[in-house]
Write the structure tokens for this entry.
Amino acid sequence: MRVAFERADLATLRTPLLCVPLFEGESFRGGPLDQATGGVLAAVARSGDFSAKLGSQALVYNPREQGPERVLLIGVGRAEDLDLERVRQTAARLARRALDLQVTEAAILFPRRTKLEVRALAQALTEGLMLGDYKYDRYLTAAAPSKNGAGQRLRSVTLVVIQEADRKSARAGIERGAILGDIVCRVRDMVNAPANELTPTNMAERAAAAARAHDFTCQVFEKRDMQKLGMGGLLAVASGSDQPAKFIVLEYNGAGRKTTPFVFVGKGLTFDAGGICLKPAPKMDEMKGDMAGGAAVIGALEAVARLQLPARVVGIVPATENLLGGSAYRPGDILRMMNGKTVFVDNTDAEGRIILGDALAYAQKYEPRAIVDLATLTGAALVALGQVATAVVGTDRQLVDDLKAAGDRTFERLWELPLWQEFEDLIKSPIADIKNSGGKNGGAITAAAFLRHFVGTTPWAHLDIAGTAFLDKAEGYRPAGATGVGVRLLADYVEAQVSKRRPARPSQRGRAKA
């Protein structure tokens, strides 16, 4: 999608669809837009059918030969309540309405009377447009879309101003929003892809392609490398699959190799059947998305590289399948992890924490500034927080607070869970150092307690994205299926750490990054 910014005369602007965000109580009677439509909008206002309440819409057809063919009025509520998340949602509503109308070109009137920064506003609009326009349809046959226009997409959108504005800032915001929107959509593609396409090998190939294209490095470790490193956990989980496991290490050096790095670790289960502790058949197909954390880490590395952030960032993705087979690992097995810890296998379907354990242990070689892992780890996180917030657990107060602030700005919100000693007690084993399941009570936290055994003294935070990575039904610019959660949050977090700008502004909870 091409997004442009320009000043225009509404009376002569010819576009198939012009979106006009309106505040409650705002009048367009007698204004340039009303004049451009021959007074039709004033008639709408007189009717009282459109009040500009948040999310309300009215579609008006322009009877004149000049000006926009259609005007879509979208209510954004009270002017004082406008924040960047509402801006994103408004842009996404335009994208979805354009899809319904089979319109490929549109314009949106740049919101006025706001205290939001021009760059942040333009970025949020661009993000909302791109994320709202997303649809995973690559496996629909060529005939199906042609019957009803289902294959149509917005090709270009113009952000229109009717008064002089800061063009440089607006275009910078558009560029940044386009970068993040593009990456998040491709991460969604990765998570939505069927497991017969997105194997561990294919995931490694996609990571390597991103690295080549955007000037960061990718190293892929094979089975023999994992054996040399002593990654008994990752090798055990991979043992039931014919697909070879891959251990993917990405590195972006935007601040020099001697700079202490941030390390992001993402769970890369390209399919999880549960192993011998087989999952129930209903919804097992969604386990193709059990690599959403790994995909987000690959996307985050691309984002910091394309944004050219002055930071050193390492991404680590252990990628494998968890299947049944004659060589599959079993309940009751004892594994020796890379850091020497022994693990009693209580449940083969608690495999994500096992492969993350080896990845977190490997991360220690970088002596990192902080480690953040992302994983679709537990159903318990989904039960606790639904699909609204990501669970966060950590060992460092400042790190957790910084991540929560990034989540507020990007509207990828985090909710903290405790990591008390009582939860540690639940994963003790009489015959090994720890066991890989603490039972159903506090499951999201006992999983984090397991991971803590592999991070040493490094500041560490664990993000359980089980509820936010994959949706049952669309919500705003988050589609049904993969959401791409984590990419914008991690990019925002890194930029906040290396930027002299701050503090965050709670009233602008969606300050976009791009």
